[in-house]
């Protein structure tokens, strides 16, 4: 692919409501899997004030999205190449004001993003936790909304709250659920069925199942080693599920 090749990327937002449920780990690894399958991927760190995609990948970041918003620096200058088919757009950490962009800043960032994304097949956004403005805005900018939840009841509650807000205030109707840290396939199915019943009953939304990631020590090891578990442990249960999820994303 040359830098000038124009594409029509699929924009995919990855959110959860609750923090610490595995968004960043999932985003980094599914981006790696898509790139291994020959797709050109941009992963945006959408946690604008408390970024960690760069940490999980062990990147040496020179410029971030913050400099585009605050100084007008060209967004393309912040792109970090992981490999020719996988780029990252890092954000800043410890900058609280980045978490709440004004309407003008959001519009400026949207325009800047739209100038660079047509080089990619997939644009993935790893959002912040919670249901703050930037989370809602990235979700409405995207075509595909992935919501990650774990079997933990508080995770279900927060995922439901996120979907409710996106549905009631932003008219989003289609959600793909990724159940993370399950002990068995059955547990993943049970959590999905439970969430689907609640969403159908109270919001008239029928979610789609994207997959169930097993609890796997290779996931936390990958984070500690600052390397995708898909590369460090390609035969692990987590890697096999990530590859299956990447195939399902390609089929969407
Ligand atoms: N499938 C899994 N098996 C084992 N550990 C996991 C799994 N998924 C995530 N974890 C662990 O959970 C922790 C949080 O993961 P991660 O940082 O990806 O979550 P997050 O949702 O991005 O967090 P935040 O909301 O703070 O951005 C990490 O220590 C990670 O190793």
Our estimate of the beta-strand percent is 15-25%
Largest sheet: 8 strands, mixed
Structural class estimated from helices and strands? alpha/beta
- The tally of beta strands, per DSSP, is 8
Count up the domains: 1
- CATH topology (fold) name: Rossmann fold
SSE order, one letter for each helix or strand? EHEHHEEHEHEHEHEHHH
What is the CATH-assigned architecture? Answer: 3-Layer(aba) Sandwich
Low-confidence stretches: none
Strand line-up of the largest beta sheet: 3-4-2-5-1-6-7-8
Question: Keywords, please?
Answer:
Rossmann fold, 18% strand, 252 residues, binds adenosine-5'-triphosphate, alpha/beta, 8 strands, single chain
Outline the secondary-structure elements.
Elements: E1 10-15, H1 23-36, E2 41-46, H2 53-56, H3 65-71, E3 80-83, E4 86-89, H4 103-116, E5 122-127, H5 133-141, E6 144-149, H6 153-170, E7 176-182, H7 185-203, E8 208-214, H8 217-225, H9 229-232, H10 237-251
Parallel strand pairs: 1-5, 1-6, 2-4, 2-5, 6-7, 7-8
Antiparallel strand pairs: 3-4
The structure holds adenosine-5'-triphosphate.
Structure description:
- Keywords: ATP-binding, Nucleotide-binding.
- It comes from Thiovibrio frasassiensis.
- Residues 10-172 form the AAA domain.
- ATP binds at residues 18-25.
- Helix content is 45%, strand content 18%.
- The longest helix has 19 residues, at 185-203.
- The chain contains ten helices and eight strands.
- The chain is an alpha/beta fold and 252 residues long.
- The two termini are 23 Å apart.
- The mean pLDDT is 92.
- The protein has an eight-stranded mixed sheet, with helices on both faces.
- The chain has a single domain (10-251), classed as Rossmann fold (3-Layer(aba) Sandwich).
- The protein is globular and about 50 Å long.
- Adenosine-5'-triphosphate binds at residues 16, 19-25, 47, 52, 129, 180-181, 213, 215-216, 219-220, 223, 238.
